[in-house]
Amino acid sequence: MDRRTALKSLGLMFGTSLIPPLKAAIDEDFDPILLTGADIFTSDQRADIEALSEIILPETDTPGASEAQVLNYIESMLQEWYSLEHRKNFMNGLNYFQNQCFLLNKKPFNELKNELQLDLIVTLNTGIDKTNYNIFADFFEEMRQLTITGYYTSETGMTVERHYLPIPGKYDGAYPYNKIKTLFTS
Fold first, then answer.
1. Are 52 and 143 in contact (CB under 8 A)?
2. Measuring CA to CA, which of 97, 154, 166, 176 is 20 to 30 A from 108?
3. Residue ranges per domain, the chain?
4. Dist. CA 88–CA 96, nearest whole Å
């Protein structure tokens, strides 16, 4: 499976909730490997985005979002596929997230212990600040989609998380997952 096909499959997974920049990129049949890199985030924003993407897809027995360089994917997507208005909304959500983190914890998100990071996300997702809930909810949904697509279209996601078998053998729909413990693509 090539990265374009993987991206289209991920787009189908998100269905109607797919964010417009990802939909535009998929419609244009773009190849994620061609993203050129960007310089949109400050160093503090980069650190917080990387920490948040690692919470979304943490390192387990397979590499996490950080090792897959999801941060670079997110920053490049913002630069190359986001309209100015959509990018502004994303950055407003990021700023709100960072401000709430500092307000509640007196530290940047990336400096918090993992448990406090998770607690903050749960707190913000429960809508404790009703007037600004949608700002965080929209930002977090975009982060989730960008992290997942960035991970599964990266070399790490394509080769380590999923094993490519050009000729996977006979089909056995009842083959026990616990014997392979991985996803296969063809």
1. yes
2. 154
3. 3-185
4. 12
